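Suppose you are handed only these lines of text.
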Amino acid sequence: MERILEAAENYAKSVLGLDGSGHDWWHIYRVNKLACTIAREEGANLFICSLAALLHDVADEKLNGSEEEGIQKVNQWMNENEVPAEVCSQVLNIISTMSFKGGNKVPMSSLEGKVVQDADRLDAMGAIGIARTFVYSGHIGQLIYDPSIQVRNSMTKEEYRNGRSTAVNHFYEKLLKLKNGMNTSYGKQLAARRHEEMEHFLEVFFKEWEGRR
Ligand code: ADP
Ligand code: NI
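From them, the structure of the protein bound to adenosine-5'-diphosphate can be written out as follows.
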């Protein structure tokens, strides 16, 4: 098990790199730590949680031709590394259910999936989430904020990925909604703190925007 986790870590490092697209190796590092912490609290299988956390973004559609190709890549890697078949199918199930896709979500069925999904969502929240949002915004060339661009309340997957928005609008379009979608009770506790952190940030942001602070 240790051998597989170490190999998965090296694989994720080699595939993901260090660019500003929001899926760098350190995102995986943090999600893995969080997933292990939540798994211990919730009594989930640590090996499955950790393996799924390490591999979850290798299959991201932004890094592959399609979602299916990404899943296929993870499947092939697990076969080559002799991951037991039942572990394989659980991990694939988790990874294919995981991406948020602008709110069109499918519920996670296994406890391990709930844990890893919570860990991934938590990394989009709080101080880290704020930092990632601005790095990603710079990466795609969108503004910090523009009062003339309206917050979009519902959107298709296509609009979520390609529509015009701002870093600050992204909090209202996605990040502030994450708290209500948490699966596990420990995940909910952590999300409550990270949510407050973001609310505080926005409060200060709008005061500073108007020169009131
Ligand atoms: P996920 O794989 O969880 O859907 P994404 O790939 O959409 O995450 O995003 C990776 C990181 O970039 C996250 O922290 C997310 O909040 C941020 N991000 C994604 N889309 C936007 C956007 N349109 N504007 C600002 N930040 C974004
Ligand atoms: Ni992720």
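What can we learn from it? Residues 27, 31, 56-57, 120 surround nickel (II) ion (ligand 2) (CB under 6 Å). The chain has ten helices and no strands.
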